[in-house]
Amino acid sequence: MADSTYPVWGWGRQSSDEPSAADLAALAPLAAGMLGHDIEPMVAAPLPELPEDRVTRLLPAALSSVASSTPLDRARHSVGRSYRDVVRAIAGRIDHVVDTVLRPTSEAQVAAALEWCADNAVAVIPFGGGTSVVGGIDPDVGDAWSGCVSLDLSALSGLVEVDPVSRSARVLAGTAGPDLEDALRPHGLTARFYPQSFERSTVGGWIATRAAGHFSMGPTHIDDLVECVHAVTPSGVWESRRLPGSGAGPSPDRALLGSEGTLGVVTDAWLRVQPRPTERWSTTYAAPDLATGLDAVRAIAQTGVQPATCRLIDAGEATVTGTLATGEAALVLGLESWSGPVDADARVLMTCCGDLGLRFVEGGAKRAADGASASWRSSFLRAPYLREQLVLLGLVVETFETATTWDRLPTLVADVTDRTNAALREVCSGGTVTCRLTHVYPNGAAPYFTVIAPGRPGSELAQWEEVKAAASDALLAAGGTITHHHAVGRDHRPWYDEQRPELFATALQAAKSAIDPAGILNPGVLIG
Ligand SMILES: Cc1cc2nc3c(=O)[nH]c(=O)nc-3n(C[C@H](O)[C@H](O)[C@H](O)COP(=O)(O)OP(=O)(O)OC[C@H]3O[C@@H](n4cnc5c(N)ncnc54)[C@H](O)[C@@H]3O)c2cc1C
């Protein structure tokens, strides 16, 4: 992969993960069907010549020893994983690029980096796994800076300590999902936190973006798992106490959760962990239409049982993912427990589905190895790899998500689907919008939309921007949030500004000015 730019835009870590001609040929008929014409897959352009690195030669020795300014490293740290990022990078367009990448190996080095950058008017973008889908690591910081540094936390990685008495674990921020689970497994413990980006995203990134794992109910947001956070800010260390709960004023941890690298660099955190599950149960039902499925999910969410999986998938997406090909919506249900049988909870779920007229498809006591829920799981895990292949074949492929209360949910789903479809017809001459519920609460749920549409070579980004704007306007108009778990970044900023209370924006800006007086941390994201 010597000259390959795959590390800049691809999902896989191995050169063998890069889509091959054979992979693309296998998918080409499907993509051609959507595009309405034969396909010439995109060929990734070579890395362009990058602007001069303004920073590395000025760094003091203590920082230059952890700096890297190879073109591939600079480019990789300037490109996230949104559709726009992937398309731009494949086309060899690295519109904004960091000058250098710093990989601190200690908290003292993080502090030294922040101090040097503040003194030298250099912007700093904390970097975990670089999986942001909202422009969170895009170094589009404006011209006011004499440089921009990516602060990559990967050298601050690993499990530091386990407290088996309290069932907590102290983890360094740069720890990626698989490494966290590998380290906890010998202790018989799990963080039980599996975002779809698990393979590549990090503990620090999860905290900074308030990420959500794939479980539908119960503790599924990183917020639910954080016991305390340790961060380095330009004004000193921010560390809260380890506490199971606290009523002592506004929570210092909450201020860092979702701060998206604008207030401090998370260096480590204590997370609540738990024994690994010993009991699992799953089943799939079919609903004649989405509305009936929504009623069933609401009924389930309001029983008090908290299924690990309660994923309502509309008919279109159920077909595409191989979950159910009958034209019905699929409801995949799952329970997990480490403390005893799940049979009583399973009966409650099955009763709800039966009462609302859903059709039993499969499942029960044992998880089917190749049934509907297994198909759903496997398509969930393969999605990031599949997406990059479809992008190379010229399709616009992107997701967006929101949440709202049950009273508004059916209308929101209908409005957003209609307005996104209208935008697709206008801008792409067609395409599909599908929807599933990713997270479920007693008082509402989080619908997640997937868009696949024909792109016009060279115009894909303009097409997507129009569709995304129409969808985002529709989300807010229907009473949703601009994001349930993908974060704000640069891409959602206009809608976030509209959504948040003005006084809160003022307070956040004041906090930022106190903690980061030079404003070096991720300028333009959330604040400023
Ligand atoms: C295929 C795919 C699937 C995804 N699935 C999910 C999902 O299921 N659930 C979900 O919530 N999200 C998902 N995401 C979005 C993304 O993975 C999350 O936002 C994730 O939390 C980002 O973690 P990261 O380590 O990659 O952070 P990065 O992308 O590197 O950074 C994200 C933001 O956090 C800041 N940041 C990173 N590390 C730190 C730190 N140590 N201190 C301070 N700030 C920091 C960055 O500056 C940036 O603003 C998905 C993305 C992709 C591409």
Query: What percent strand?
Result: 15-25%
Helix content: 25-40%
Q: What structural category do the secondary elements indicate?
A: alpha+beta
Spatial order of strands in the largest sheet: 5-6-10-8-9
Strand count, sense and barrel status of the largest sheet are: 5 strands, antiparallel
| Number of E strands | 19
- Give the termini distance in whole angstroms: 40 Å
Radius of gyration based on Cα positions: 23 Å
Bound compounds: flavin-adenine dinucleotide
Oligomer: single chain
The average pLDDT is: 95
C-alpha geometry: globular
Would you write up a description of this structure?
- The radius of gyration is 23 Å and the shape is globular.
- It has 18 helices and 19 strands.
- The strands form 5 sheets. A 5-stranded antiparallel beta sheet has the order 5-6-10-8-9. It has a 4-stranded mixed beta sheet with strand order 1-2-4-3, covered by helices on one side. A 4-stranded antiparallel beta sheet has the order 13-14-12-15, sandwiched between helices.
- The chain is α+β, with helices and mostly antiparallel strands and 528 residues long.
- The site of flavin-adenine dinucleotide has 38 residues, from strand 3, helix 8 and strand 10.
